[in-house]
Amino acid sequence: MTRGAGGEAVIGSASSGDSPVSGPAETGDSLAIRPAGAGDFTAILALNAAWVHHTSPLDEAALRDLHAQAAYHRVAEVDGGVVGFLLAVGPGQTYESPNYRWFAARSHDFLYIDRVVVAGEHQGEGVGGALYDDVTAWAGRNGFGRLVCEVNVEPPNPVSDAFHARRGFVEVGTQWVAGGTKRVSLRELTLGGGGEPRL
């Protein structure tokens, strides 16, 4: 699964202090989700580069900046190796993604999923779903009223569209990005929060 700024899913600071989520992946391998740290940046950059046609380019400086702005940034590990990550940004940041800016202009209680990537050899094992379960629970516990993202509609991504529909995300707008080469569906999942997020 991949998503990114102007890209999307192919199916606290960054360390909130919450304990990691553990459980089996569908392959029977051990799956753990934990806060991302600088020691994970090499793996995160490699994952992003492998799926850059769905996300957006990311170098170490840009990753450090995004990590610093992230309310949530976690990695998924299988048997001790990083096989995926999810990075999300809350309101009030200087992030220049046009999709983030669209949501920021309309809401103060959102958590924007900027990018999520799962290694190709681990897709279909429940890693992406586990990351989404974790970020959804985290956002709810921390007072966010909505979890938001975008899904490509031109060119289409039916796998991502179906994944987000199954999870209850609904379209709240559309826009053209990437110099008019992509049209995205802006989606949100309403959570129980709705006050000021506790970051």
Instruction: Determine Rg (CA atoms, Å).
Output: 15 Å
Structural class: alpha+beta
Q: What level of helicity do the residues show?
A: 25-40%
Number of helical regions: 5
Helix-strand pattern: EEEHHEEHEHEHEE
Q: Considering the protein shown, what is the CATH homologous superfamily?
A: Gcn5-related N-acetyltransferase (GNAT)
Total DSSP E strands? 9
Strand content: 25-35%
How many structural domains can be distinguished in the coordinates? 1
**Main beta sheet:** 9 strands, mixed
The end-to-end distance, rounded to whole angstroms, is 27 Å
CATH classification class: Alpha Beta
Let me know the average pLDDT: 85
CATH topology category name: Aminopeptidase
What does the overall shape look like?
Answer: globular
Runs in which pLDDT lies below 50 for 5 or more consecutive residues are 1-27
Which architecture does the CATH hierarchy give at level 2? 3-Layer(aba) Sandwich
User: Which quaternary structure do these chains form?
Assistant: single chain
